[in-house]
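User: Hi! I'm a student and our assignment asks us to look at how structure tokens line up with a sequence. Could you show me two examples?

Assistant: Happy to help. In each example below, the sequence comes first and the structure tokens follow. Example one:
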Amino acid sequence: MSKAIVLDATMKAVGEIALPEAFAQINAHNLYLYAKAYLANLRAGTAHTKTRGEVSGGGKKPWAQKGGGRARAGSITSPVFVGGGVSHGPRSNRNWTQKINKKQKRLALQYALNAKAAEGKLFVVDKISIPSGKTKDAAAFLKTLGQRDALLVASSIDEKSYLAFRNIQQCYLVESSELNAYLAAVYHAVVIEKDVLENLIKES
């Protein structure tokens, strides 16, 4: 059974919260499917090349069919010419969107959190807040945590805390509604407020 580490205000371990046994029985393929769909849905799909029918020029045979000693050519818009169309290039009419159902989203998140807990990288705090709004205080919070980078999950984000964390590259502060399996998996550690984790456990 994986356990999340409970930290006090000084970032010292003071206890543990056991994750449900069901979290450890989830198939890892759920996380793969979610991450694949999440990244696919981020694609803008704006890459676009013109075919030989869309580039300017053409309409006239560039040289006679025979007698010139060169290969026959019908149009300068052919892909073999510089400035011609592109064969099999990307088209902006392609839809990269992938769908994933709610159950798989939930299972993927539970698996990701359990994996972090198994590695000793899931930390629970009462509140993630920097009342001063100063980046140096946020940096000190992360330094005390002692992790390479961290995903910070709060039930709600106040303006002061947002200002304190926004310029620090080693962390990402999100509200509980923004938490997803990809973010939980991609960061080295996850710091989550106690009430948020308890709600996730209740929903399992």
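Example two works the same way, sequence first and then tokens:
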Amino acid sequence: MIYFDETLYKSWHQSFRVDQVLYRDKTEYQDLIIFQSPDFGRVLALDGIVQLTEADEHIYHEMLAHVPVLAHGGAEDVLIIGGGDGGVLREVVKHPVKRATLVEIDGSVVDLCRQYMPSVSDGAYDDPRAEVIIADGVRFVAETDRRFDVIVVDSTDPVGPGKVLFTQDFYRACQRCLKPGGILVTQNGVPFTQPDELRQTHTDRRAIFADAWFFLAAVPTYVGGFMALGWASDEAAHRTRTADVIRSRFAAAGVRTRYYTPDLHAASFALPQYVLDLMG
């Protein structure tokens, strides 16, 4: 049997059985592999780190998309940095947004995921409201004159091309691109195994935004406990929307989900003590 060993951590690892390698090559930016695994379906890994599996990607993508969009309550323009697999885009366009702009540095990720993992984007790239820009997301937010209600950063871990998406300069540029009351959410790793990432992110963002916090999701692929998703906004009321308010908005949007619920939305902002300790 052949196994794919993830290389994210030095002291331990997880392995996926590989039934078939569907694609493997080094793109302009990173080593990319897509393979078939018996329990997790098709798996995408970049530079030896698993990005998503067909079996549980909905958990991560639903929480990244629906929490900020429904907390905002009136999002029309959404920016997605990264996310070339199309999962966040798929969930965003379930809402009555006017435009969803995806900026992905590696066009190969978009093309290969559409070819080998079409269920992830599920037609979202063909939505007339979807705009795809193959460009550096850091440069885009630094230079664009457009403004957004929600910015979702669906990045790799802070290694390789994704490292620049974990800097104070980038967060400040994102704030510049938000409309008043806008919300920024980010991928922030597993705090039990990546505590320094969460600690530094919180330090950087609370120096910029009026309200900086995290919310949680349990994604089996991202081993080591809860996955932390970063939250930042200058409108503190967005984070404390009650489940009743979110439930009303969720019903009005007519969105169907497999993991996300309004009650889970509200509860996801309650953090374990060890995470609060990391935040200082």
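Here is something you could point out in your write-up. The longest helix spans residues 57-72.
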